[in-house]
Amino acid sequence: MKRFLLTLACLVPLMGALAQDAPDGYRAPVIVELFTSEGCSSCPPADEVLAHLSDLGFSDEQVIPLSYHVDYWNDIGWTDPFSHKYCTQRQWNYARLYRASQVYTPQMIVNGTKQFLGSNQTLAKQTIQDAWQKTDAAKIQFSNISNEIHSPTLTLKITYTLHEAFGPGELALFVAATEDKLASDVTRGENQGRVLKHHAVVRTIKRINQISTKQNAPVAKQVSLSIKPGWQRNNLRAVVFIQNLTNGAIIGAASKRLAGDTTAASNPLYE
What we know:
There is one protein chain. By secondary structure, the protein is mainly β. It has helices at residues 43-51, 85-97, 121-132, and strands spanning 30-36, 63-69, 107-110, 114-117, 138-146, 153-162, 171-179, 182-185, 195-198, 201-209, 219-226, 236-244, 250-257. The strands form 4 sheets. It has a 4-stranded mixed sheet with strand order 2-1-3-4. The chain has a 4-stranded antiparallel sheet with strand order 10-7-12-13, with no helix packed on it. Strands 5-6-11 form a 3-stranded antiparallel sheet, with no helix packed on it.
């Protein structure tokens, strides 16, 4: 069940188009964020929606899923092993942006501007389709990735180009690593007795403020993320997106699966 209710009347409407037409007609993937928890009995259906966006007709080139496991369910019987305070903080950042006084799970947010109950498959499909029809104000590419199997650091070399004018401090660059094929045998709480499977779990995310907002000028940036030993590199994906901090709109995104140790053991609960 939901632990927190979000007053929908407090939500602001979609705050402007995500972007105008880019000069080259480039169309970036749509970022689909889900705020979820293993302690919430309403969340597994939403986890399934996020994990099977391909069943709704979307390819990996069209959508990038991000699953944020919040930590405010951890005090009622089950501690979600994939939860982190930065996931809860990001959800509260959205709540403040939307002028909402509370947060809830499962909450799905598409390209930073449209939010709804994450288990609503019909609404998810329509909202993603609407977002996909809009071209983006930023084009992002990975020029190189350094991902040595035994290195504790993942280094990304990123190039982005803005096709619209933005003010200083208006944008932030986010870099994340997500992991697929995660699962838990839940022994307490609302989901007691269930094996829960997860896709695109955000393992780490870094926010870089004060990025260059010069229009139509490629900008190169190098970013490093810390990778923990227990993460299976063959299931990791690097995700990069640029977000407008004034209205929440994600104006460009890219992702790349990381080459890792393909002999690494997978989570037996997932099989």
